[in-house]
Write a structure and sequence with these properties.
With about 120 residues, the protein is mostly beta strands. About 0% of the residues lie in helices and about 65% in strands. The radius of gyration is 15 Å and the shape is globular. It has a four-stranded antiparallel beta sheet, with no helix packed on it. A three-stranded antiparallel beta sheet has the order 1-2-3, with no helix packed on it. Strands 8-9-10 form a three-stranded antiparallel beta sheet, with no helix packed on it. The protein is built from no helices and ten strands.
Length: about 120
């Protein structure tokens, strides 16, 4: 019996917008195709994504600086809404190589490279 599992992938397109794709996989790993796609930001580089709570996911990425966007995605893999976008840093062109993890319900931590190549962690 094949079961449907939905995976959410943050990726870059050729024109460098940050896209989030929902991909369906069937047991034992057959790719069923793209369910839905959403352009989050242009430009958007180096995405890192985590589940926050319920249908809410957070994507940290480098745009002109570093940004964090939250999106709502249904269990079936359909995008419901972009909830919010906030800047991670006031460093202008920094916010490189963000890495995001869930700390608890509604709290994430994002590590990134800032001015003078020093490391930052924000919650």
């Amino acid at each position: 019996m094949k079961t449907k599992v939905v995976y959410i992938v943050a990726a870059l397109a050729l024109a460098v917008p940050l896209l989030s794709l929902n991909v369906a996989l069937a047991d034992p790993g057959d790719i069923g195709g793209v369910i839905d796609r959403l352009e989050v930001d242009t430009p958007g580089h180096q995405p890192s994504m985590t589940h926050v709570s319920g249908d809410v996911y957070a994507i940290a990425y480098k745009s002109s600086s570093g940004d964090l966007t939250t999106v709502e995605i249904s269990a079936a893999g359909d995008f419901i809404a972009v909830l919010d976008t906030q800047g991670l840093t006031n460093d202008g062109d920094k916010g490189d190589w963000p890495s995001i993890v869930r700390v608890s319900d509604y709290v994430v931590a994002v590590a990134f490279k800032g001015t003078d190549d020093n490391g930052w962690l924000e919650t």
